[in-house]
Amino acid sequence: MTDTSSTDPVNWEKSAPEDRETEGPLDESEANPVRPYVDLGGVKILPREGLHLRLEVEEETQRVVAVGLDYANSTLQVQPFAAPRSSGLWHEIREQITDQVNRQGGRTQERDGVFGPELVAEIPVAAPQGAPGETRVARFVGVDGPRWFLRGVIAGDAAVKPDAAALVEDLFRSIVVVRGSSPMPPRDLIPLRMPTAPATGPDTFTSL
Fold first, then answer.
1. Are 14 and 29 in contact (CB under 8 A)?
2. 204 dihedral zone (left: phi>0; alpha: psi -120 to 50; beta)
């Protein structure tokens, strides 16, 4: 008889770097309160030179559904989700991403990265009729925190070039997740919003 308990979502262990509590991504309770974060609701972003912010809005509801960060000739899309207190979501979500990419005609490869398991995906790009098919490379990373899960999608240079990858990985590490105390079903997107105050600093953030 095969033991299937390890595949039960309730029993999946959290997936996160061993030093997450000090090096990030951080929970709000772990972050330095005096650092000049830009408050976007479910996440806080630390400004840095050359970093540009985009908020991705769902057209029908006008709800902010993701934060896009342009940095080091790369893009990093982040989304924070509510999660169980004692178990993780990343193992299940990786399977869902793999299925989705496969349905699009792409392919994925799982590997060990700085945050733990990650997916490297080759995703088909729509091309004009008669043109040769092209693909783009994207890295899907995820970290299970206390009652939250943070997903990142890395594209551009950081998906294929080690130097850019290190810069964007450090950016992902610097994100603070604000779970809040309100009850939320696991896998629900933690609400995001426009910045509550203008960011300061040169050439750091752009509007929508």
1. no
2. alpha
The pTM assigned to this predicted structure is: 0.87
And the tokens for 52? 């540009």
**Helix boundaries (H) for the chain:** 20-23, 90-103, 162-173
**Beta strand ranges found along 46-99 (DSSP E):** 52-57, 64-71, 74-82
User: What per-residue string of b and e applies to 169-206 under the rule 16 or more CB within 10 Å gives b?
Assistant: bebbbbbbbbbeeeebebeeebbbeebeeebeeeebbe
In the predicted model, residues of the chain with pLDDT beneath 70 are: 1-11, 129-132, 196-208
Q: How confident is the model at residue 197, as a pLDDT?
A: 53
Sheet containing strand 64-71, strands side by side: 52-57, 64-71, 74-82, 148-156, 134-145, 116-125, 107-113
5 vs 106: CA distance, rounded Å: 30
Q: Pairing state of beta strands 116-125 and 107-113? A: antiparallel
Name residues whose C-beta falls within 8 Å of residue 87's C-beta, 6 or more positions apart in sequence.
9, 10, 11, 12, 13, 14
pLDDT, tens digit, 9 for 90 and up, residues 76-92: 999 999 999 889 999 99
